[in-house]
TrEMBL record:
Residues spanning the membrane: 7-32, 52-77, 98-118, 124-142, 154-174, 186-204, 225-243, 249-272
Protein known as: Putative phosphatidate cytidiltransferase
Record carries keyword Transmembrane: yes
Species the sequence originates in: Xenorhabdus bovienii str. kraussei Quebec
MF GO annotations: transferase activity
Gene: ynbB
Keyword Transferase: yes
GO biological process per UniProt: peptidoglycan-based cell wall biogenesis
Entry superkingdom: Bacteria
Gene Ontology cellular component terms for the protein in this record: plasma membrane
Keyword annotations from UniProtKB, A to Z: Membrane, Transferase, Transmembrane, Transmembrane helix
């Protein structure tokens, strides 16, 4: 069980307080613009809020259980994200055995290594050993059609949805002086800043957005939304310094780094979807699309945040 202190209680209370306010606003908008006046935007907003309630409740339960619960939660998230990635980038029959290894051997091992706090192997297992194993296993089948393309797809899927994402629960293995048994707050800090950056970029883009950053890739991402969302979420991260081992300015700089990486992650995942001709990776979360649609920013932000924290604070 996680030790729930006043700081963690206040942080969780703030999260659910925001959700309650958002739910109230969504209900008011639905009543105000009832019937024919009600727009798809309001319906989408309420669907997203319901999705956030579900995700936050699951995350809180994992936090209460402790490090084991957090590792299991991210293992499940990786499983669904990997499935969506592979589904969207089809492979051939000859790749099925390699995929079996990815889903049922390599992914569990990666998270077991985190649970064991074995940093030396966790940090190289997928980018070295799995990376080298996959092309060999696929080559042994004898199917050479688009061999490099197929291998690269599976390697990229493992690196993004398993290796990169696993750096989030890996925060729990860090030994930070004067911050013992509080790492769960560091994980929550990362998730809050990254997800709020996505939301704030969306809000600022809807309110003030006029100039698309990459029109052909993601026309809804604007310069105004990017600047407003990044600055606002960095300030939010700075205001949450008290749940981290950082000073206010350090928390702000950390937040800036992970929000920039989150933005890059969103763009890269959008490129994959546009190339495949789809809007979302899936539909597992109401109002949010697939699992990978919700954690694309986190996949790119988590490794940077983990290694910056490990290098400067342990």
């Amino acid at each position: 069980m996680t030790k729930i202190d006043n700081g963690l209680m206040l942080l969780l209370g703030g999260i659910f307080g925001v959700l309650i306010i958002a739910s109230a606003i969504g209900s008011i908008l639905s009543l105000w613009y009832s019937g024919a006046k009600r727009s798809a935007t309001i319906d989408n907003l309420n669907a997203r809020i319901r999705g956030w309630w579900m995700m936050c409740i699951i995350c809180v339960l994992a936090v209460i259980v402790g490090s084991v619960g957090s590792v299991i939660l991210f293992t499940v998230m990786s499983f669904f994200a990997l499935r969506e990635f592979i589904t969207l980038t089809p492979t051939r029959r000859g790749d099925h055995e390699a995929l079996f290894w990815c889903f049922f051997v390599f992914m569990p091992i990666q998270y077991v290594l985190i649970g064991m706090q074995w940093y030396g192997l966790f940090s190289v297992f997928i980018p070295v050993y799995v990376f080298l194993f996959l092309p060999v296993r696929i080559a042994l089948v004898g199917d050479t059609t688009r061999f490099l393309e197929r291998t690269a797809k599976i390697q990229s899927a493992m690196l993004i949805t398993v290796f990169a994402l696993s750096h989030a629960p890996a925060l729990l293995m860090l030994h930070i002086p004067d911050y013992e048994e509080q790492n769960i707050k560091l994980l929550l800090f990362l998730m809050i800043v990254v997800q709020m950056s996505d939301i704030l970029q969306y809000v600022f883009g809807k309110l003030f957005g006029k100039s698309p950053i990459v029109p052909k890739l993601s026309p809804n991402k604007t310069v105004e939304g990017f600047i407003g969302g990044i600055l606002a979420s960095s300030l939010l991260g700075m205001s949450l310094y008290w749940v981290t081992p950082f000073s206010p300015w350090e928390a702000g700089l950390m937040s800036l780094a992970i929000t920039l990486m989150g933005f890059i992650g969103g763009l890269c995942m959008s490129a994959i979807k546009r190339d495949s001709g789809v809007k979302d990776f899936g539909g597992i979360i109401e109002g949010h699309g697939g699992m990978l649609d919700r954690i694309d920013s986190l996949c790119f932000a988590a490794p940077i945040f983990f290694h910056l924290t490990r290098y400067f604070y342990t």
